[in-house]
Amino acid sequence: MRVELTNLEKTYRDSRGQPVRALRGVSLRIARGEFVAVMGSSGSGKSTLLNIIGLLDRPDGGSCRLDGDEVVDWPESRRAMFRNRRIGFVFQSFHLLPFLDVRDNVELPFLYSREAGTRPGDLSRVLASVELHGVEHRFPGELSGGQQQRVAIARALALGADLLLADEPTGNLDATTAEAILAVFSSLSASGRTVVLVTHDPRVAATAGRRVDMSEGQIVTDTAAAPAGRFGGHP
Known about the structure:
Layout: E1 3-13, E2 19-30, E3 35-39, H1 46-53, E4 61-66, E5 69-70, H2 76-86, E6 87-91, H3 102-106, H4 108-111, H5 123-129, H6 145-157, E7 163-167, H7 175-190, E8 194-199, H8 202-205, E9 210-215, E10 218-224
Parallel strand pairs: 3-8, 3-9, 6-7, 7-8
Antiparallel strand pairs: 1-2, 1-4, 4-5, 9-10
Helix pairs in contact: 6-7
């Protein structure tokens, strides 16, 4: 999916009612199949940016076009349908339901889809895309952290999403497991899915093809990511 953002503005009110400008004229173009890491400290605007791209929030001004369609003024029903079918979300916490096995966790999006009776691909293919095999009937508590995050990624892809948004997806993982998960994102990007990953860790950002740095609601640098060695810092 192509993402085109132009002059995005977003202002919130803090606990004292004072305005806080989360985004200040942000413009960004992301091509289909790109793997982009968005970096910045807390309060830099990176999560607000991700929420606007994912149609979870609306900007106060500016344009957000997804595959050429201006989505800012879409009614919530249309935004929800587009979000459910074409955008997948992955978070630092896996958000798996502990009383459901892997199969049922991955199939959860179908419960919220108007096309619940149709399946764009079988479960085995989705699990294979994130390198999970033979765990369909295991429960989250029986899986490692890396396996749980792979299940969460599979769930995000279940309806055929072509835009994957990840918010600190390796934050709960050790270095070796994080490296494996980041390799999954790279593979998904290589297959044509657009991946936008928010992180505060430069080692994570270095695994993407492009790094965007934010500070105080603005993009301050936008460069091709430097080649990286192993995530854990080993040669």
